[in-house]
Write a structure and sequence with these properties.
Chain A has about 700 residues and is of the alpha+beta class. Chain A has 16 helices and 32 strands. A 9-stranded antiparallel β-sheet of chain A has the order 1-9-10-11-12-18-16-15-14, covered by helices on one side. A 4-stranded antiparallel β-sheet of chain A has the order 8-7-13-17, with no helix packed on it. A 4-stranded antiparallel β-sheet of chain A has the order 19-28-29-30. At the A-B interface, strand 20 and helix 11 of A face strand 20 and helix 11 of B.
Chain lengths: ~700, ~700
């Protein structure tokens, strides 16, 4: 199965071939190490690429410079460190050396085997004295042994008889990118390097974070037809970790076999099959492949906005994890979901400290961070997005409901839920409106970053209500916080949700519908995304959404709304949404499915499914759009298949006419369910000894415990 | 008259004597040059002072570093340059030199003659070899010749016979102050110095701004009892200015005489006499003295927030000029008011460019600037305070009404009014509320910086309405903009003013009254000002005002409100105002007078009148609070005397019982009016040939044209 052509991504299929774009798309990683597909021979020559290697959680920091400082601002930047291009080599043939002179190289093959997680490349090389040969690479980041990056080099078709000496160098020049784009990292840190016996310790000087690195740098003499496998061991140095590395020596063939087995297992749990569109099928597998590559799995790291494929967003973790990535992992790879959530438990002390700094009770998670400390340097679209607290709780809750695993909640999970509930009760406020006391959260920014510091953002209030209810449920279960529990329930019951009676639509926030609608007709196409062409003040004072906000809340809580309401809100908010965020279209796709507009759902889905392969947002150079990749899973599974948790897994058939069949696997309460949708048909295959049952419902099915 | 003890400020009268505080209070200036009273002998020894000299408009710039950049942000800081302590000297007696060794100095006299604008000091000096003598200084910045700073040194009571060699050095060490306080400048620029014949050119390297400086640096040999007058010529180098300086030689005695005459003329027009409290009388004169010292008078410079007495707020000009300082100048020194307003006309091109950058029509004046370009590095409490546009227009309007001088309006004035009106029409928006179309300004920050980016800030809407009406009046007068005129009138007529029916109070903005009231009872005294102890998010989501906002609007347009409404609003907003801004108390004093609470008016006034002498805000070291000094004039004249422009000058007697009589002079339509208030009595003395008439009204009088 894994040799299937739709698991192979070849460079020839891609719409353009600029070096930086290919480096991102063909990056290989395993959640711990990520290696961009930098040119193997340009190790000390600047070229039109941006090669590099990233280690999840390895960052440097520096004080944030503010034009004008204020109390409580985030103190330090955190920037993931770019390591040298490990796969880069220096070749010597006789007196000629590839790093001293310009050797001509032509790429003749570049193929990613997504079924096995292995990247294969071949370059035809011509030296200045016209010696010619083929250089092939076969590389991967080991899924079984996460400290290992492996690259095998083969020399073939030599027009000369001298041996080729192959060596690595870790002293490399970097190209520097200067940009004003707030979405791109713009910092480069010099690492301190120290040799300790057979390994090196590299230290980020300001954060003090360290990695250990071990490799045989050569040189190795290769004759025509010979291969050498370089194995790099790379790991974050943990305070409690005397030995950084496993010391077992494993040969290349074994590593390849393990890699194939690991990917086979991954695809069995995670693959989605679509009939009728080979490009789309491949695009979806590409997304799932990158989701697998990017997730930290040690409970101490998470999933960066760009995975480990680039420097965009400085390698930070956002709410993207819980709201866009976690559903995929919860429903297919719950053990990964558990690790991602454990990370949040691990940074709870930092969240406590942050709440305290802001004079609030409980815990407030950082909007963007690597080590748990707030690093957002523009709080109106950073710290003010308090909803991340409730997003994380939603992640824990969904994890528990779908996996049935209470262990995580028994441990750190319940503390996360309680502490965030304490924060909301303190931060939120009761207001009297029309003779009634309502609870609401004021002075926040919702998911829509084109409206900032508003009162009663609908999404936030809805998520906070859920946070309170779940906290109350757990308080009862564990016999804790009896007094707080009553307050949480009271606040949840009194939660304010604005509604515009005249237009009969849900209010995004207290003032959104009072603003003038953005002058879309007068806005030329090149002025999008708006954030790069208009001052925030101008954007904020208009009715214009960067992304799904109310519509996202309605996706998460679809059952709480009438069909007519969902449709009215969708129609209204779609008109004022620019989708300038890559987190938007997938949600509009899901909700288009649910309100019955499968044509629109398909169009939005097609934009998201192939966003990076087609370089839709023109910034793949900075890394893949991980949340959008998770979003394309949502479009398929939450949208076309209508998956919605409601005392079991509800599904409905919203398959657009362009797709013949859609098959996928879900994990529910430890069991594996194979689901197939065809036009007007849903078929579920349960395990033979299943404790589940499929119930027919009005508009679809529900899978629940017997 | 000027020898009156209440015109003398002596160091012994002050509540504390720390060096930096005295350097600010005893700074002398003339609107072009400001000289802090730095120690005369500590020119190359760091000490607990912060000496320096400022030239109005002479600044350096550097790019503003943002933690996260966004489109349209202000690009460059501007920071007024601190020049060396010109009054500092090096003395040599035999082999002893005051800059090589520590000479003991004891200040035996420090007296500011506010009647003549001359500072006198005496120091008893002891050299390491125990030579003793008295060093006296007599210094001032010439009001008649603004390029001159004059300091005469006298040596007396020598215990030795050697001559004393006195010289100046301009190479001096600076003490560096590092602080996070957003209200203090934190930058130090190295000036490039070049000698050109008998003068020097000093260049701020990044802004390219230049000053020329000429002085005789000595040495001069002084024997016991001898004096030498050092005369420094300092001027901004203007592109069109071939000769920097007047070349006329003037002797010290003549300069002193001119200075005395200038101050005599100033006090005749500006003095305020209060009976019954000598300290208060002196404090008021001290304020008026500094108002006279700080105002730029060349149409190219303005009045910095700290005058020319310190580095606070980086030497920037704010709305403070129009709303807090200009009334004093308009009613007493209209020729200075005209120059301050001409500055706004001069920077209209920059205001045009800024509006364009924000995609708006017309002109938007910078919130804080020296050269007219926006330098506010935190736009929610910077650029978003759009009201500065309407504040400036209010200044032009009041100038025209009170002086009767249309020349300024005929010229640049009308353009300022038209261009700001164009901006408002474009930036503002029509919204439908309760079936009616209202015009409002959304996404702005009003004067109260503890509420940011709100809709329909009452003060802003009120000021914009006035801006529109004045623009329409001028459009008609000059036969210009007939189409726009109609739109301006329509928008002004449709202006939205929020009113809370339940509480019967004016809404500060659309959401202010929905916020929770700040927990004042739980806030310890040391947590004020709030901005230094709470994150802006936390402050913004509460009902808490840094300063007068709605109350300020009601001071400017008192006639538009019922007495009961003024009182209700005052009572409500006073309870939620911290007065963390020095711009607040004076306005509350005025409005307390107008709503009949003269006791409260007096208490607020007493806080403002002596704010700097008593170091109430504990930051006099960074410079005087110019706006508050203007505010204390408002408390007296707008408050106690009830001055309010309403088709003439209306006045009313709100004299608090603590003050026996209050006398002052007003300039109206070119005439001088002497006003005296006693308990239950207002007396106006018009010129003998006056074209004005005093009309008795219900609650006071009105002075109008015959």
């Amino acid at each position: 199965m894994v040799d299937n052509q739709s698991f192979q991504l070849s460079v020839e299929e891609l719409p353009h071939q600029t070096q930086e774009y290919l480096e991102t798309l063909f990056a290989v990683g395993n959640g711990q190490i990520g290696v961009r597909a930098g040119h193997p021979l340009k190790v000390n020559q600047l070229y039109d690429g941006n090669p590099g290697v990233f280690v999840n959680g390895f960052f440097d920091s520096e004080p944030i410079q503010y034009g004008e400082w204020a109390y409580g601002y985030a103190k330090n930047h955190q920037t993931i460190c770019k390591l040298p291009n490990l796969r880069g080599i220096v070749l010597r043939i006789g007196h000629e050396c590839s790093s001293d002179s310009e050797w001509q190289t032509e790429r003749t093959e570049m193929n990613l085997d997504m079924g096995a997680g292995i990247l294969t490349e071949t370059y035809h090389v011509i030296t200045p004295s016209n010696k010619q040969f083929d250089l092939s690479l076969s590389s991967f980041a080991s899924m079984k042994r996460r400290e290992l990056y492996v690259c095998r080099y083969t020399i073939a078709h030599c027009t000369f008889s001298d041996p080729v000496a192959l060596s690595h160098t870790l002293d490399q020049s970097f190209s520097l990118i200067e940009t004003d784009d707030p979405r791109v990292a713009n910092k480069h840190h010099q690492l301190e390097k120290e040799v300790r016996g057979e390994y090196q310790i590299w230290t980020a000087p300001h954060s003090g974070k360290q990695i250990a690195l071990r490799a045989d740098l050569g040189p190795h003499q290769l004759t025509d037809g010979a291969s050498i496998a370089s194995i790099f061991q790379v790991a974050l140095v943990d305070d409690n970790q005397a030995n950084f590395f496993q010391n077992q020596r494993v040969d290349y063939a074994t590593l390849v076999k393990e890699q194939e087995e690991s990917y086979q297992a991954f695809w069995e749990k995670s693959d989605i099959h679509i009939s009728g569109n080979a490009q789309l099928q491949k695009g979806i597998r590409f997304n799932l492949f990158h989701l697998n590559q990017g997730a930290g799995r040690d409970g101490k790291t998470n999933f960066a906005a760009k995975g480990l494929t680039g420097e965009g967003y400085e390698g930070h973790y956002f709410w993207d994890t819980e709201m866009y990535l976690l559903p995929f992992f919860i429903y297919t790879n719950p053990e990964v979901a558990k690790q991602l959530l454990s990370y949040r438990g691990n940074i709870l002390p930092q969240a406590h400290a942050r709440a305290k700094e802001l004079g609030q009770s409980g815990a407030l998670f950082a909007w963007r961070t690597i080590d748990g400390n707030e690093t957002s340097a523009y709080y109106p679209a950073g710290t003010a997005q308090l909803h991340i607290n409730a997003d994380i709780v939603y992640g824990f809750q969904l994890y528990e409901r779908v996996t049935g695993d209470q262990e995580l909640i028994d441990g750190i999970g319940k503390d996360v839920v309680f502490e965030t509930a304490k924060f909301w009760l303190n931060y939120g406020t009761y207001t009297r409106k029309q003779g009634q006391d309502y609870f609401g959260v004021h002075g926040v920014t919702g998911p829509d970053e084109y409206s900032a510091l508003v009162n009663n953002n609908f999404y936030t209030n809805k998520m906070v209500q859920n946070n309170f209810y779940y906290a109350a449920e757990l308080a009862e279960r564990y016999g804790m916080y009896p007094e707080e529990r009553n307050k949480w329930l009271a606040a949840a019951d009194a939660m304010y949700f604005g509604f515009d009676e005249e237009r009969q639509i849900t209010q995004q926030d207290d003032s959104f519908l009072d603003q003038a609608v953005w002058p879309f007709e007068e806005t030329p196409a090149e002025n999008y995304p708006l954030l790069l062409h208009y001052h925030p003040m101008i954007i904020y004072k208009h009715q214009v959404c960067k992304q799904a906000d109310t519509v996202l809340a309605e996706m998460l809580f679809t059952g709480d709304f009438s069909f007519a309401q969902l449709k009215r809100d969708y129609d209204y908010y779609e008109k004022v949404t620019t989708h300038d965020s890559s987190l938007s279209r997938s949600i509009f796709s899901v909700m288009a499915s649910r309100i019955g507009d499968t044509g629109k759902a398909y169009r939005y889905f097609m934009d998201t499914a192939l966003m990076d392969l087609t370089d839709l947002q023109k910034n793949v150079v900075d890394g893949i759009h991980a949340a959008n990749m998770g979003g394309s899973w949502l479009s398929l599974i939450y949208g076309f298949a209508g998956l919605y948790y409601d005392q079991g897994l509800r599904m409905a058939n919203h398959l657009p006419k362009e797709i013949g069949t859609l098959s996928f696997t879900l994990s529910y309460l430890g069991e594996s369910i194979k689901v197939t949708l065809a036009q007007n048909d849903i078929f579920c295959e349960l395990q033979t000894d299943s404790l589940l049952v499929v119930e027919e419902m009005d508009a679809g099915i529900r899978i629940k415990q017997r």
